[in-house]
């Protein structure tokens, strides 16, 4: 399928999203590498964005529901000069609102998880805003079946949704050599330090793990509003020296970090397809994750990982201990997960589906011109 092109031979894609996020950087780089002229607008400042990028200025102290709509005039100015063939807004309450307000079609909403699974339930205002944006998007991308189900409950027809996980770059996220199993229990969490990811439960479980596995060590990668509380909690466990907080890790350094560990833990209370889970699976780690719908799409309990009840330190600790002591199961899970990731979570294969959607929408728009 041929794309409508500008004078330089490239279709124009305007991205709206948080330019500090690794997912958006990967997304922008993919489309730039695949022949698009990509321009990104963001209210967040980025220093290493892979495509043309501009920061929209709005007063920083205002609440988000006011700040983002204030950027609409600046976005309209860019639309008038850049003349995008397609607009792609990431995360509904912020950039989805902007795209809905500028009223330029076609535009695609890419949902990220909490914007659909949690925020609409906060208040009647949040629900009304969600429906307003969803009704105005030309098409919506969803990274999990559980989120697609929720979108349909919010009134979006299946015909306007493409369900595809973000995926993993399999040339980068690869297992360690040999069996990929360290001689000591090394546990890692790569979730943001926010309430929804419930890293507190992992820290509370760690003393129980240490009582049975004295050589165990825990790495917590990620940052967030709960970091100070979580560091304090780690201090209270008496094992602070064995709990390493490394902050946000650059995406290109994440594979090496993962390969230093052998058990991956996610204690999320709510989620869609977790890219960090897929990356850990690709690197050969044994997953111990909460028994929530999104994780059930990827982890069969006892086959390629372990699912535990949310907010239960005892159950979590028991699962970690059992996983470490059962090396054959860890090796079997590693081999099983390698096949799952290759089949369902290859970044390039999955993004090709998004690219096909964009091309089709551009061609349909050209046919109407």
Keywords for this entry:
single chain, 369 residues, alpha/beta, Rossmann fold, 2 domains, seven-stranded parallel β-sheet, six-stranded parallel β-sheet, 13 strands, 44% helix
CATH class of the largest domain: Alpha Beta
Q: Which descriptor suits the 3D outline?
A: globular
CATH architectural category of the largest domain? 3-Layer(aba) Sandwich
The CATH homologous superfamily of the largest domain corresponds to Glycogen Phosphorylase B
Poorly predicted runs? none
Termini separation comes to 17 Å
User: What is the SS-derived class?
Assistant: alpha/beta
Radius of gyration, taken over Cα atoms and rounded to an integer in Å: 21 Å
Structure report:
The protein has 15 helices and 13 strands. With 369 residues, it is an alpha/beta fold. The protein has two domains: 11-166 and 346-368, Rossmann fold, CATH 3.40.50.2000; 186-344, Rossmann fold (3-Layer(aba) Sandwich). Strand 11 (263-266), helix 11 (275-282) and strand 12 (286-290) form a beta-alpha-beta unit. Helix 2 (64-70) packs parallel to helix 4 (91-102). The model has no long low-confidence stretch (mean pLDDT 93).
